[in-house]
Amino acid sequence: MTDADSWRDLRAGDQIGNLEYLVDEAALIQYRRVVGANGCFPNLMAEDCRAMLGKRGAGEPLVTVWQRFDFLRPPIIGRRVQVGGWMREVGEKCGRAWLKAAAFAVDEIGTEILRSEAAFIIGGEAARPEGNVDKLEVNTGMGSLARSRAGDSGHLGELRLPGEEQCQDFHLPAKEMTGFDLRPDGHGLTWITVGWLEGLMGADFGDDFRWGGRLSIAHHATVICGMRLRCDGVVLDHDIDVSGVESRRVAMSVRDAAGRRVATAEAAVTSPSPRLV
């Protein structure tokens, strides 16, 4: 039986496992060194859906093609995070196994942290790191979306991913978190894109995004060590209800230094967040 065949033994509704790990101050500091000072969800480093599925199969890599996150509240530093996961879909696309998983994370006293879903295909072409980077350039977000209207667009931020040696520095087995996946295919770095966009939205909308925001991301190309990323965005919708509550939907495009599309994303946020009222 091949590794891909073993994945097909899973069925929609199957439990795929549980994770438990500590989110501490060291993890938050490392997370912000990579994604920028406004990042608030270091547990994204754990890649919960990937980590649980990884325990169910071996060999060929899981290539992340889509993710969605409902941010319920930032983890409370010093508390353990507990995660449960299950299968949403199991099938085949273009002759390759297709998996969609979901996860729900709470802390040790039951505080809701994050809901997530992710879709994967099995296997993929290898990607080589672009080389080591001595200086890490973090989020340079503009912080203007919270004042934007429908149709407004602009440059949201830039990021240079850590070099290969720095990736080793950010590996966190001692913290029981999955951290960077340093296999040669490089597919384990998708969480950096997610964390960076989380930080960009947090810079603009603050707790309104961290307590109730949604982020959906389609990954179009491998994200690898040393890559330089640029994010541009446009406000798709902006509504204000009779009580003055504002809702926005923002589309984002992430490209590398050569202008190739790496990911597209959409964020939704309500200000003030109903979770904070």
Question: Which helices and strands occur, and which strands form pairs?
Answer:
Elements: H1 3-7, E1 15-22, H2 25-35, H3 48-54, E2 62-71, E3 80-93, E4 96-107, E5 112-122, E6 153-160, H4 164-169, H5 190-205, H6 207-210, E7 214-219, E8 228-240, E9 246-256, E10 261-271
Antiparallel strand pairs: 1-3, 2-5, 2-7, 3-4, 4-5, 6-8, 7-10, 8-9, 9-10
- CATH uppermost class: Alpha Beta
> How many DSSP H or I helices?
6
Strand content: 35-45%
The CATH topology corresponds to: Thiol Ester Dehydrase, Chain A
Order of helices and strands: HEHHEEEEEHHHEEEE
> Any idea what the shape is?
globular
Low-confidence stretches are: 126-142
The strand count comes to: 10
Q: What's the end-to-end separation, in Å?
A: 53 Å
How confident is the prediction overall: mean pLDDT? 82
CATH superfamily: Hotdog Thioesterase
Number of domains: 1
Radius of gyration: 18 Å
What is the helical fraction, as a range of percent? 10-25%
Structural class, by secondary structure, is alpha+beta
How does CATH name the architecture?
A: Roll
The strand order across the widest sheet is 1-3-4-5-2-7-10-9-8-6
Description:
The chain is α+β, with helices and mostly antiparallel strands and 277 residues long. The chain has one domain: Thiol Ester Dehydrase, Chain A, CATH 3.10.129.10. Helix content is 18%, strand content 38%. It has a ten-stranded antiparallel β-sheet with strand order 1-3-4-5-2-7-10-9-8-6. It is globular. The N and C termini lie far apart (53 Å). The relative contact order is 0.18.
